[in-house]
Each structure stands twice: as structure tokens, then as C-alpha cells.
UniProtKB/TrEMBL annotation:
Domain of life the protein comes from: Bacteria
Ranges of residues in domain FAD/NAD(P)-binding: 11-281
Annotated keywords: Flavoprotein, Oxidoreductase
Keyword Protein transport: no
Statement: the UniProt record of this protein carries the keyword GTP-binding: no
Listed name of the protein: Thioredoxin reductase (NADPH)
Molecular-function annotations in GO: oxidoreductase activity
InterPro entries cross-referenced by the UniProt entry: FAD/NAD-bd_sf, FAD/NAD-binding_dom, Ferredoxin-NADP_redctase_2
Amino acid sequence: MGDGLNIKEQFDIAVIGCGPAGLSAAINGTIRKKKVGIFGTDFCSPKLHHAPHIDNYLGLHNMTGEELRKRFLDHVKAMGLGIIENKITGVYPEEGGFMLQSRDTFYKASAVILATGVSAVKPINQELDYLGRGVSYCATCDGPLYKGKKVIVLAYNREGLEEANFLAEIASEVLLVSQIKEKEAQGITLDEKIKVIQGKPVGITGDMWATGVALEGQNLTADGVFIIRDSVLPDQLVPGLNVSNTGIVVDRSGATNIPGVFAAGDCTGAPYQLSKATGEGQVAALSAVKYLDELKNKAGDTKKELAAI
């Protein structure tokens, strides 16, 4: 899969998410001498930031969430780590590890730790049914398929507006349904080909292929639909990932059903507690390190066997 792609960097462990679980995983992976990449937003852990008072974190009582959040980030910085502010939209297995996609940029990792937190994403009606059949989460990836055609963009963040501008260079017409506040859109000038539609999306319409979007009070038709949000559902982020109605399914080591993919923190389900998140982050990191070391030892044994033939 890597041939001809823009490979930005390669890691031993890629951590997706920069909340307490993700930062804990990154620190522990780094201590074990692994090259770790942390993928997150420009503001890590808003949930912790908004906590007015924390009294149940061992040894660091009587603190605000923001004070503790800053300590976490200071710790990460002291370890020589930084946050890569590129949203990962897909994690795909390949020989020797995984390919991580962020729009038109790709990263490689030998193991992946998911620490995406509790997802606030609630798919609209039939969104998942039409995913890959006229519905896409990445304009850069799938936009060329709609050259000269009409598309709808459901924008839930600034990136959605940027993606609409990108699609305006390709498509014949772009209908933009924005769900973000006006102040969040400041500084972005929309292409003149973009038509802004007011309304709340409630579902995807179509037959075998998505043909439009149902809003409250009206229906829009198009050849394709792009939905741009801050986060992607875990099982859409990692195809084939086992997810229950409570979160990503893991064992006590943090391992998922996909070898080399681990998960930690709120994304694995309740209880949604700070200590649980940081603890699971450490466990997932140690498990990922063990997984990588076993792979390395296995490869070494194979070489010895070949040399002996």
C-alpha cells in the first residue's frame, strides 16, 4: 500500500488521541525506548480542562482539571514528545504494521494504540449504511471520483469548510450544510461555486447508492456526500475492529481483536475515570512494547533458521 504514497514518518507505536490515556501510553512507550508518535488535536483533553476540581487522583489532590492537564503536557514535553495535529481518518494493516492516513499524508507504525476518548459522534440515519457507497469522510481521498459532479458537504468543523473549498476545484457544484458557529469559521473564504444551505442533517437518502441528504424540512440531491467531523467512529477508523455498544472490546492487556492494535481509556467503556484512563494507557503501551519485541525476536529466529539451511 505504501508505493507512491506521501509517507511523512514511521513510528514503532502510533498513539491516536492525546487525552490522559494517550499521553500515558506515549510516555510509557517512550520510556521503553520505542519511537512514539502522538496524533491529537490542537487542544488536548478538553474534558479534563473543564473539570473544576479533582480530588481522586492519587498524590495530586485538590487540583483543577486544567492544572493537571498542563502537568500531563509538561511531562510529555519533558520526554521530548510533541503532538502531531493531523486527524487520522483511517488505519489500515499492511505487511510489517499499519498505514495511518491523514487526508493526503500517510504515516507508518508497527503498532497502534487507540485512545480516542468517548465519541460524541452520532451518525445520522443511514450514514453507515452508505459509507463507501456515496458517503465519504475524506474529500482529499475520494474527491477525484466526483470530478464534474454535484456533491454535498456536511461540515461539523473548520476542516469541513476547507474540504468544501477543495471539492469546489473538482466538482461542478458543492452544497455546503454547515453545523459550526460563525466565529469558528472566521478567516475562511468560501469558493464562489459553493452554495450554503441552512438546516440540520437528519439522514442520508438513496437506493443502492447515496443520492442526497435529508434535512429538517427539505431534501438535497447530489452524486456524493462528504461528512467532515472532529472524530471518526472507532470501527470506521480501523476497519474490522470489534466494538460493542459500550466501547472498543479489549482484553486485560488492552489488546483488540486486531493483532498490533491496542486501546485504552474512555473509548474502551465505563467507568470514565482519570486514573482508569492513565492506567489503561500504561498497560496498552507495555503490551504494545511486548508485542513489538516478540515480533523482533520471531524475525530473528526466522533469520537464524534460514541461515542454517
